[in-house]
Amino acid sequence: MKSLLPTLVLVLMLLVVRVSGYAQGHADDALLASTTVAGTVEEDEKEVEAPRVTTTASARVPMMTIQGRVIDVDKDPLVGATILVQGTRLMAITDADGCYKLTVPVGSYTLRCGSAGYYDDEVSARPTATNQTVVLKYRPDAFKRIKR
Questions:
Q1: Per-residue pLDDT tens for 6-43?
Q2: Cα–Cα distance for residue pair 74/135, rounded to 1 Å
Q3: Torsion-angle region of residue 44: left (phi > 0), alpha (psi -120 to 50) or beta?
Q4: Is residue 86 within 8 Å of 109, Cβ to Cβ?
Q5: How many whole angstroms separate alpha carbon 69 and alpha carbon 134?
Q6: Is 13 helix (H, G, I), strand (E, B) or coil?
Q7: Using only C-alpha atoms, what is the Rg of the chain?
């Protein structure tokens, strides 16, 4: 039991390193820095070096922010509109002012914007686009299919 305790401590230290990497809000497990953990373990009253555990990872992924606003043709904000980044599982929902904000790896993306009662629209987002406005057109037949 005595020799098991230091090993458990090493495992806990590795978990803390992993969890702290996630707590920084990075999008990928590969963002963790290379870490080497070593220690000593007492076995039957003699000290033996514990095995080294090394985790390696790639460099940090550069990120960019995509932000904008979704409005209707009357320039009123659309609250609760969804913005989907096509080809990923990322999405955002607009706030009370119709604004959204997404943090994604640097690149070019297609955003699919939609809201109940409006036609969906697709817009492209590039690293140079910082704030874009999406105008959704009202769909008059949207609620005719609903039966009461």
A1: 666 656 555 554 544 444 444 444 333 334 444 555 55
A2: 9
A3: left
A4: yes
A5: 6
A6: helix
A7: 25
- Tokens standing for 135? 């105008």
Token reading at 32: 């963790």
CA distances to 39, 50, 78, 98 from 69, rounded to whole Å, are 53, 55, 8, 5
Region of 107 on the Ramachandran plot (φ > 0 left; ψ -120 to 50 alpha; else beta): left
**SS3 at position 23:** helix
75 vs 28: CA distance, rounded Å: 37
CA distance 107 to 79: 27
Residue with tokens 């697709």: 122
- State pTM to two decimals: 0.56
Which two three-digit tokens encode residue 113?
Answer: 């914007």
pLDDT digits (tens, 9 = 90+) for 61-91: 899 899 999 999 999 999 999 999 999 999 9
Strand partners, 43: 46
| DSSP label at residue 118 | B
Q: How far apart are CA 145 and CA 76, in angstroms?
A: 25
